[in-house]
Amino acid sequence: MGNLERLYSERAGKMRKSVIRELLKVAQDPEIISFAGGLPNPNSFPIDDLNTIIQAVMRNHGKSALQYGTTQGLTELRKNLAERAYKDGIEDVTADNVIITNGSQQALDMVGKLFLNPGDTALVGSPTYLGGINAFKSYESNLTGIPLDKDGMRMDVLEDTIKEMIHDDVIPKFIYVVPTFQNPSGVVMPEKRRKELIDIAHEYDVVIVEDDPYGKLNYDIDHVKPIKAFDDDDGRVIYMSTFSKILAPGFRLAWTIASEELTRKMVICKQALDLCTNTFTQYIANEFTRQGSLDLHILKINEMYEPKRDQMISAIEQYFPEGYTCNKPHGGMFAWVTLPEGIDTETMFLDAIKHKVAYVHGKAFHVDGGGQRSMRLNFSYSSNDQIEEGIKRLATVIQERLNTIKA
Length: 407
Prior knowledge:
With about 400 residues, the chain is α/β, with parallel strands linked by helices. It has two domains: about 10-45 and about 295-405, Alpha-Beta Complex (Aspartate Aminotransferase, domain 1), CATH 3.90.1150; about 65-295, 3-Layer(aba) Sandwich (Aspartate Aminotransferase, domain 2). It contains 13 helices and 14 strands. Strand 4 and strand 5 (about 150-155) form a beta hairpin. The relative contact order is 0.16.
């Protein structure tokens, strides 16, 4: 076939590979202990329970479950998710406000498609979830990073940035936040700051995109209401969450909660993407949720992941050279480590691979070129023995790099 480059759209020419997906390819060697992917532990999958439910779905709903579904999603599942959202503090929600999507990534893509023209600007955390960065950049947008502290996105910097943008005749389209056990930093935005974010968004007429994949992976703090719970009558928050971290990522099931106006727009957008989400897996997830199995399963996941988190933090404290900083996340799946001055975790990655250990370098999560000394480490996937050995290997890599810097 001839040269296709001249046929590609300008947008296609600007598309970039996912850093994490490329790193995962490198880490496929079975001898490599990988802390790179945001993968649930496969031992957490409720295989026996799902096998029973699948048989029941085929027996009782087979003809419907194997058919096309509505674009917005299975009505009963949407009702269940609306009821769960109400219990979490989102009071003004019904099934009409819920859309079932093919993973959260589709929801992020829909947001980009709805709001971003080429050259438009959105505000994101610095650092923030790489999948969000990729989804929004694919629409040729500009992303401005807002720094985080121990309580998440800094509201003072956010408001100053919005004021400067408006002064320069730039209209920020939305603010993207992962407020609970943030990916990659693990921090939690407290309720007071969530209310401040709502006030800022209202003052400057900006949409908030709240991504909450990890909120139920809570090990040792009280529940914090979603930002959407403080949306009142304004309807400017798009909330999204997923079954990937609390049931099975292979189902590719997630959902959004938004105002009726925004939901209508997103449904139209989704119709052009895939017509409908996998009907069969919706029936399975609905039955799993309806029976009350989901809440029990989440408890089991947390009982599995909390000691893994503790072991990773303990191993880091024991083996890493002095001069690093590391949070102890209260939930989620990641530890965020910043190393001493002079270390670039992107260039150090190949050294780590030689020592049969992998991570994601910090620059992948920044839109402003930051994060050179940082790395994200996943603790949910690896076995306890692998966590211990992997951190030992990584400590050796860091020490060797420090020795080179000092030489």
